Structures are given as C-alpha cells and as structure tokens.
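#help-structures
NK: newbie question, is this the right format to request a structure? protein is Undecaprenyl-phosphate alpha-N-acetylglucosaminyl 1-phosphate transferase
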Amino acid sequence: MITIYQLFGFILAFTVSLVSTPFVIKFAKRFGFVDIPNYRKVHKAPKPLIGGLSIVLGATAGILYLKPFYNYLVPVMLGGFIILVIGMIDDKYNLTPKWKVLGQLIAAIIVVSAGVKIDFFIIPFIGEKIELGVFSYIIAVIWIIAITNAINLIDGLDGLSAGISAIALSSILVLSILNGQMFVISITVILIGSILGFLPYNFHPAKIFLGDTGALFLGYCIAVISILGLYKSVTIFSLGLPIIALAVPIFDTIFAIVRRLLNKQSISSPDKAHLHHRLLAMGFSHRATVMIIYAIGVSFGLSAILFTRTTLWLSLLFMVALLILFQLLAELIGLIGNHKPLLTALAKLINKREPLKNKNN
C-alpha cells in the first residue's frame, strides 16, 4: 500500500509542478523556447515549450522529501539529467535525430552499466532458466531508447503525452503495490503527482507544451521504472506487462516505423499518420481525440493488471487477443496506410464461406 509519506510526496510533487509552471511559461517565452506552427502541427499560434521542466522540478522536490534509498538512484538521476539537457537543447535548437539518440544512448549506458537490467528469465511450463548474459545490457539499452522515443512520438496533441504517461505510470504503480516494491512505488507516485500538477496548463487549449524536455524525460523515467519493476528475473510472460501498460506509444511507434518502411521513407521522417492524426482526420475534436486515446490507454493499463491475475494459458490467449485487437484498430483507422493484411484475410475468408452457404441452401 501507499504510505502516508509517499502520499505527502505525491502532494508535494503535484504542488511544486502546479505552482512552478507559470514561471516556466515566462522563462520559455523570455529565452525563446517556443514552438512555431508548421504543416504537421495542430496548433496555429506559437506556444511555450519546456513544460517538462515543471515536471522535473516537482519530481525533484518529491525525491528530496521522500529520499527513497536504492542502489541505482544516483545513476538513474544522472541519466535523467542528461535526457533533460538533450530535451532542452532540442526544444531550443531542433537537434537532428542522431544527436538526440546519442544523448539517449549515453544516458541508457550509464543506467544499465549500474545494473538496471534483467539478468535472466524463466520459460513457463518447463521452468527453464535462460541467462541473458551480455544481451541483458543490449536489451535494456534498446528498451530505454525505444520507450523514451515512443512517448515523444505521441506528443502531438495538448495533454496527450503527459496524460498517457500518467496512465501508464498508474498501471505500473498498481503492479508495484501488488508486488510490494517500495522504491518503485515512491518514484512512480512522485512522477504521477508531477504530471497531474502540470496537466491543467497542458490540456486543451494548452498554455504550454511538454516539449522534448518533458516527453523524453517521461519516456526515460517510464522505461527505467518498468525495468526496476520487473526486478532481476522474470517469467517470459512478465516481460509483456510493461508492453501492455505502454501499448499506445509502443504500437503507435511500431506502426509508424512499418508505415514509413512500406512507403520507402526514413523511419525518422515525420508524417501526419499517427493515431491522433488519424482520429482527427475521422472528424473527432481535439479534446475527443485525446480522451479516446486516454480510454485506450486505461483499457490496456487495466489489461496489464488483470494479466497478472490469470493462469499462464489465459495470459497467452490474452496477449494474442490484444495483438489482434490492436492490429484491427490500426487497419481500420489507417495507421499503416492502405496496407490492411488482417482485414484482407478476413474478407477472403468470408467470401470463401459465402459460396458454401449458397451451395448448401
């Protein structure tokens, strides 16, 4: 359960983030941290960036109050600082993707070198232990960079990235409470408080954007926390928990990569075919689009929690069903353009059955 001290840490992080955001807005305007509209962006007027700085201030206040002890705290905070600096530089000068990834790589290596990784996993049904060895470092680094960028990629509407991050962290919080992981509970509670303190200024119509300062920082924190929440060893199905909890940014990123490869574009090239773009194109309002994606995020967050309460066979069926569901959703709204393999296969199957029905009649 959440202790009274952790609750106070939540309130402190929320308050500091809420109170500091107006000052961050003034700071952003004065020093030129402003997002200029272009053909890809939904907003029509310049908006202050680096809203993530408010979240960082709130989280820092919460950590200083709770003083959560953990061997990895210093390297995790150092990595977070590097991500913060990279985000601020990008918000000001628009770094190229390779420089952003380089900064993320350095941060990830620092954290993983300190021991934030999964050393082995256990195959269910047979109970065989698989040592990951050097691959544990590689997998952890890739995971941190991937989730850091996934959260950043969905930051296209007011309140979207921050809200989805809060939802994903809430799922991780519940799982941590069920497993009694006090350090993860403390950090997660602090981050949720910081995000909720910032959201009133970020929800549509936003007074300030999260910016890469915030989106990259939140992505990094969620990636690291999800690894810490798994501990050093897991069953292979447990690896699916953070993926389910983070389904919205993960699958939106995967479909973006597939879409760009199919269109023979660079995977880093921007487009207007992300989940939120497609919902807007279908006629949903800005607020409605964000709330729909929130609902999808909550659904997957609850699914991750229920996933831990079922048998292994049910977990396997559950995961397959979720993958099919998300693929259908992606094809229906056009996340991968005109490529609809699953819907095409279903249509062929239905067409094959129709002649059989007519013949029997």
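mod (FA): yep, format's fine, and the tokens are attached above. The longest strand covers residues 120-123.
NK: thank you!
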